[in-house]
Design brief:
The structure holds 2 protein chains of 2 kinds. Chain A contains 12 helices and 9 strands. By secondary structure, chain A is of the alpha/beta class. Chain A folds into 2 domains: 3-140, Oxidized Rhodanese, domain 1 (3-Layer(aba) Sandwich), CATH 3.40.250.10; 143-265, Oxidized Rhodanese, domain 1, CATH 3.40.250.10. Chain A has a 5-stranded parallel sheet. Chain B is an all-beta fold. In chain B, 0% of the residues lie in helices and 51% in strands. In chain B, strands 1, 2, 5, 8 and 9 form a 5-stranded mixed sheet that branches. In chain B, strands 4-3-6-7 form a 4-stranded antiparallel sheet, with no helix packed on it. The radius of gyration of chain B is 13 Å and the shape is globular. The model of chain B has no long low-confidence stretch (mean pLDDT 87). Classes of the chains: A alpha/beta, B mainly beta. The interface between A and B is large, with 42 and 29 residues.
Chain lengths: 279, 102
């Protein structure tokens, strides 16, 4: 897997804002940033309202994804460039989701909004309206999505990578430090999981670390590259960032994102849970 | 659906539900010269220099973290320049720290 196939730079993006067939999409949980200023021409996707099923705990189904992208004016042949705040967490989640539904021509803007803003590149608050399309999605590719039973079965046999902060991993906190503490019934982590916080895969400007740095990071943490891997966090977006690093940048063959993550696992009855800083 | 991981909107007055007898709150303002700087990316780093959290400062430059007692670095990134400051929180309460950038 080559970095150029999955990432574009802010510089490339700025010169391709008006390129036909290239669609920029900002993805965030809090879309107020988009409303205040976005890449000129970019459409927005609201992670919570538009990518999640509003009744069941799951993401939108194939028909829902087709309807969403058709309304956003994204065509099957378009090259989609995703970016967002929070060091591209939600954009990485959307990337994984686009791949899941078979949209191969999708890339991340390396560094997301942060890099764009730090570079002082232009933002626009103009309303963006694209003509509707008739988007057609594939059946979901579950080769990249892990479900809870696979996670239980992976204990001690596959790489489990917990990308939350050390305090969440050890069970001291149930959510990141800047958020209200909520969600799972029990704190802790999946036994045998390695703790490699997502932030270690990123530079401070939000861009991904180099392939060599990433390889060293996961190898030093104890990741066995000959085994399959499942990444998880609390709700599946930070682990999408790590899934991207492992699967798309380092090219590891069998890497799944467990989007149920700790909010699901930590509330399951009867599954093994570990606390403390050890795997 | 569980709430996501986006940071809550940053603003100077503490929300009413924050109990300063139990919470360790690190808060402050990003400035350049005598002017507040809005929109900086403010990163919280622990005593080992490891990343612990990040928020975007409000238009008035205000930021806030909920942390644990200990020594912390707050580091602001902005298109006009970066800056950082150290702060030690010995226990619950409001611990204020300013960051100058540029």
């Amino acid at each position: 897997m080559s970095r150029e196939n999955v990432l574009v730079s802010a510089e490339w993006s700025e010169t391709n804002l008006n390129t036909p067939g290239v669609v920029f999409v900002e993805v965030d949980e809090d879309t107020s940033a988009y409303d205040g200023g976005h890449l000129p021409g970019a459409v927005k996707i609201d992670w919570k309202q538009e990518l999640q099923d509003q009744v069941r705990r799951d993401f939108v189904d194939k028909a829902g994804f087709e309807k969403l992208l058709s309304e956003k004016g994204v065509g099957n042949d378009d090259q989609v460039i995703l970016y967002g705040g929070n060091n591209n967490w939600f954009a990485a989640y959307a990337y994984w989701y686009f791949k899941l539904y078979g949209h191969e021509n999708v890339k991340l803007l390396d560094g997301g909004r942060k890099k764009w803003e730090l570079d002082g590149r232009p933002l626009s608050s103009d309303e963006v309206k694209r003509d509707a399309t008739n988007y057609s999605a594939n059946e979901p590719n579950t080769a990249i999505r892990a479900f809870r039973d696979e996670v239980v079965d992976a204990i001690g046999s596959k790489n489990l990578v917990d990308v939350r902060s050390p305090d969440e991993f050890s069970g001291k906190l149930l959510a990141p430090a800047h958020l209200p503490q909520e969600s799972a019934q029990r704190p802790g982590h999946v036994p045998s999981a390695l703790n490699v916080p997502w932030a270690k895969a990123a530079n401070e400007d939000g861009t991904f670390r180099s392939d060599d740095e990433l390889r060293t990071l996961y190898r030093d943490a104890g990741l066995d590259e000959s085994r399959s891997t499942i990444a998880y966090c609390r709700i599946g977006e930070r682990s999408s960032h790590t899934w991207f690093a492992l699967h798309e940048l380092l090219g590891l063959a069998d890497v799944k994102n467990y989007d149920g993550s700790w909010t699901e696992y930590g509330s399951l009855v009867g599954v093994p849970v570990a606390v403390g800083s050890e795997s | 659906m569980a709430d996501g991981c986006g940071a809550p909107t940053q603003s100077a007055p503490l929300p009413a539900n924050i109990d300063l007898t139990t919470q360790v709150v690190l808060a402050g303002r990003v400035t350049s010269g005598s002017s507040p700087v809005g929109g900086a990316f403010v990163r919280l780093l622990n005593a080992d220099g490891d990343f612990a959290g990040e928020v975007v400062a409000s238009p008035e430059g205000d930021f806030r973290f909920f942390a644990a007692p200990g020594s912390w670095t707050v580091r602001a990134l902005h298109r006009t320049g970066n800056g950082q400051a150290e702060i030690t929180a010995d226990g619950p309460g409001l611990h204020e720290v300013g960051i100058t950038v540029g």
